[in-house]
């Protein structure tokens, strides 16, 4: 039986003392698995854009979305700085190449909105080019939507105090230091330059066919749950019945099979050394 789902219908209505992050995240990840099956079966094409302040938690949300799904259906695009060849192309050209085919969900971890943000502020493009982008972007996105692609845009916000706390945590933790780039440091210093640029970007590119959805993210766990729930509630997917495969029976071991005795390289079990205090 086909059944439509509004996975986000409870999230955000009111706080619950019994709210459990791990339990709610698992429920949503189950729904993401159902979404995946439907997208693959229906041939739907979906684009999800994540933009926002540095250290606002984009990576954390994307990680939880991808945790239990197939990379063949959910594909992440996080483009590096453009090459000299790409700089000579039409600006949107390298992004168009990554748009989804049938049965795919493409997640942009930063997107074409680099132009009115970091490119503009850091002087990688002229003010004229940035403003021209803001004028053309709604038309570009309208063409994407008119072609049958479902486009969702999320902008994560974080307070100055929380961003500073997260930056300092990255500085102190060797496992997170790679997350703090020179661009992040510059965005910290130029908070208000970015604020003005983002305000204009959101105002000029928020449209009926491709609206911006703001995700408050001072509380990372709530941001993850709220955003994933909203994604699920924004896509009219249906549950596809899982076809249980018949595993059949294993073949019997051949009577003439002799186990190979040649030397093999086995990965050492370091837990044994740890147990014996070596």
UniProtKB/TrEMBL annotation:
* Biased composition, class Basic and acidic residues, residue ranges: 252-267
InterPro entries for this protein:
P-loop_NTPase, Polyphosphate_phosphotransfera, PPK2-related, PPK2_PA0141
* Domain of life where this protein originates: Bacteria
Q: Name one GO molecular function term.
A: polyphosphate kinase activity
Instruction: Please tell me whether the keyword Transferase is annotated for this protein.
Output: yes
Q: Known EC number(s)? A: 2.7.4.-
The chemistry this enzyme catalyses reads: [phosphate](n) + ATP = [phosphate](n+1) + ADP
| Keywords in alphabetical order | ATP synthesis, Kinase, Transferase
Question: One of this protein's GO BP terms?
Answer: ATP biosynthetic process
Pinpoint the Polyphosphate kinase-2-related domain residues: 19-240
Region Disordered: which residues? Answer: 252-278
Q: Which SUPFAM superfamilies match?
A: P-loop containing nucleoside triphosphate hydrolases (SSF52540)
What family does this belong to?
Belongs to the polyphosphate kinase 2 (PPK2) family. Class I subfamily.
**PANTHER family reported in the protein's UniProt record:** ADP-POLYPHOSPHATE PHOSPHOTRANSFERASE (PTHR34383:SF1), POLYPHOSPHATE:AMP PHOSPHOTRANSFERASE-RELATED (PTHR34383)
Q: What does this protein do?
A: Uses inorganic polyphosphate (polyP) as a donor to convert GDP to GTP or ADP to ATP.
Tell me the subunit arrangement. Homotetramer.
> What is the name of the protein in this document?
ADP/GDP-polyphosphate phosphotransferase
